[in-house]
Design brief:
Layout: H1 5-28, H2 35-113, E1 116-125, E2 134-137, E3 150-152, E4 157-164, E5 169-173, E6 180-185, E7 191-197, E8 200-206, E9 218-221, E10 235-242, E11 251-257, E12 266-272, H3 305-314
Antiparallel strand pairs: 1-2, 1-12, 2-5, 3-4, 3-12, 4-5, 6-7, 6-9, 7-8, 8-11, 9-10, 10-11
Length: 315
């Protein structure tokens, strides 16, 4: 239809009639004069709407079910991810707590001995059945690490640095057969040299063949010239066996080391030496002796003894 003046007038008239019918319907309420027409339209078009709804509803329900199923799957996936993350975090927390405990213990040793240390983590270990007992740590020359520095942990002496790279370093463990460190007995001046024996106790040769030593005595590092490769006062271990003195120039001891060389994780490299020898101050407190129970036996006189004596008097 062309846009003429008559068509525009017709459109305005139809709009006016529509508004008038709407107004009459609203004001009439239930008695609206157009209610009959609305019911007739409902009668004619109602079945068509129901048929269309019946045809469309299964599709809509299926789409809704698929959408809800996808949402449930997504929720399950999110929960599974959250549980996995929680388990990983718990495992990580356990390991972190263990490392924090090791670090705290090592810092106490360093503080007592006045050692300036650079903390490190063990990232590799050499084969014990190979040529040497070594570990690799994640600090190197860029961290101020140099060859022949003392390595310790919260228990005691671990070893010394032998090879240094930019970001890593190799440590020769005190258990290695080629490892030797000067030692000093606790509360005395008896000096010796401790050597590694693999998975067996350290072997210590005291310079004094007549030295009075007993099981349970403790040793620390004596220190090296210019504190390289060993600083003084680092706990070494506890005497577990003493060979009988044969009148020789030296005396042999066997020492259980404080550090467990198969359970190394957090270690420290001594980068600043103490101003004075800490001597025995870094050693852990001595264990308290376990009290031994004593048994007291009380003898009670027999009740028949007086009767026998009395019978003898009567006879």
């Amino acid at each position: 239809m062309r846009d003429t003046r008559e068509s525009r007038l017709l459109l305005v008239l139809l709009i006016a009639i529509a508004f008038a019918l709407i107004t009459v319907d609203i004001r009439g309420g239930e008695d609206s004069p157009v209610d009959g027409a609305r019911q007739g339209a409902a009668t004619v078009f109602g079945p068509i709407e129901s048929g269309v709804s019946a045809a469309v509803d299964p599709v809509g329900n299926a789409v809704s079910a698929i959408r809800e199923s996808g949402e449930r799957h997504d929720r399950l996936a999110v929960l599974e991810e959250e549980n996995a993350a929680l388990k990983a975090r718990l495992g990580s927390d356990d390991r972190s707590r263990s490392r924090l405990k090791q670090l705290d213990k090592m810092l106490k040793v360093a503080g007592t001995g006045q050692y300036g240390i650079k903390g490190a983590q063990v990232i590799a270990i050499g084969a014990a059945q190979g040529f040497s007992w070594t570990i690799t740590i994640d600090v190197g020359a860029n961290d101020g690490i140099k060859r022949d520095m003392t390595v310790l942990n919260g228990d005691g002496l671990v070893g010394r640095v032998t090879t240094v790279g930019p970001h890593t370093a190799t440590v020769l463990l005190a258990s290695d057969p080629d490892f030797t460190v000067g030692t000093r007995m606790e509360a005395g001046d008896e000096l010796g040299f401790a050597s590694g024996q693999g998975d067996r106790p350290l072997r210590v040769e005291l310079l004094n063949g007549k030295a009075e030593v007993k099981k349970g005595d403790r040793l620390v590092t004596f220190g090296s010239q210019a504190d390289r490769p060993f600083v003084p006062g680092v706990p070494v271990g506890v005497v577990s066996r003493v060979d009988p003195s044969g009148g020789g120039l030296t005396r042999t001891l066997y020492v259980t080391p404080y550090a467990s060389f198969t359970k190394l994780d957090i270690v420290g490299v001594v980068v600043d030496v103490p101003k004075k020898d800490p001597r025995d101050t870094v050693l852990p407190p001595k264990p308290k002796p376990t009290p031994r129970p004593t048994v007291t036996v009380t003898v009670t006189p027999s009740a028949e003894a007086p009767a026998d004596g009395q019978n003898q008097q009567e006879q």
